[in-house]
Design goal:
Blueprint: H1 3-23, H2 31-49, H3 52-80, H4 89-104, H5 113-119, H6 126-148, H7 153-173, H8 175-178, H9 208-211, H10 219-242, H11 245-255, H12 257-262, H13 267-293, H14 303-317, H15 322-353, H16 363-379, H17 393-396
Helix pairs in contact: 1-2, 1-10, 3-10, 3-13, 3-14, 3-15, 4-6, 4-7, 4-13, 4-14, 6-13, 14-15, 14-16, 15-16
Amino acid sequence: MSQVLFLKGLMLGIALAFLLPILLPPGPRWRVPGGILLGLAAGLGIAASVPPGYLSYLVGFLTMASLYGLLALGLNTQWGYTGHLNFGVAGFFAVGAFTSALVTIEAPSGLAAQYTQVLFGLEMPFLVGVLAAALVSGVVALIVAVPVLRLRLDFLAIATIGVAEIIRLVFQNERWLANGPQPLRGIPQPGRCLFESRPCEWLPDSLAWVVEPLSTRDYTAFYLMVVAAFLALGYALIERACRSPWGRMLRAVRDEEASAAMNGKNVPFARIQAFVVGAMVMGVAGALYAHYTVAIDYSHFHALFGTFLVWIMLMLGGSGNHRGAILGAILVWGVWAGTAFLANALEPVLAAIHPELPGRAQYVRWLLVSLLLAAVVLFRPQGLLPEEMRVSNYLRGPRGR
């Protein structure tokens, strides 16, 4: 194995070492160390046996699946634990993406100087951009939650769809805010200098030789490692929070709101807390997406891709189960990516039926995904990994049983 393949396999293995302990069954003590060792071995094995083109495709697939896994985690906090029918996921996804982009990029040309001084040219580090995305998404969610969470069920769903569309149209039309309908380009990527000819200023000279064989086309494996680390951290924090008294309070508010209020719980405040926390996780996912794509505009945050696909992931994986949310994100994104090949294969057949049909072959993807959702609702409404009825670590016992 060449040095480049070894390094790419090592980065892929580290990413899988973050992901596999999440997906393995909870309880056994070997779950985390076993998942780490299995992930490292799988990454090196895949790099040694898979052709470079397929390896790049796998890295891109896992990156997008991990980003959607973060979105599903945020939605699970809102719907799975509190019962908020939030159909505005794409709105908070967009807020996080544009916030991190505006905090980290340089001032683009063609904008008014007074706005440039206020909104652009900050050139803050990547982590500051992600933190700003989480905070701004949380503030927006707080402003939205106070009036909107008074609604229930379908009225709440309609209101959140409207909020998401308002956010998307603001970014589309207000040129002073985020370049309007034109793409916002030049979003920096963390650690990009490791893969370019100019060395990173913070990298010691004694370690420069390690990354010297890598080129810019190998950067995607490094960024997968970054996204997987954020996903693992987000899962650990949310899982711990939802197994605490705070998480049990959210489930009580969801199941028996009147009983929770009678036991002294501030029900409106609990609902707002869950909504804000979920929106902050969605904002982090948006920030990571912006730094992955380098250029974003309002069209990236359509409700079909930013909201309803996430709902299908959560319903398939298991509402109320964080492991299920991440598993559903990986499986549904696999279905979505696989149907692209099917749609391309169907184009000759559709052309034989009517010359205008090949241009509509992409609708087959939505048809298959909708059939998948219908099958889940009919045959497995609880999802692949149902919600755990006993979530307290105290009741599990000293060994987690």
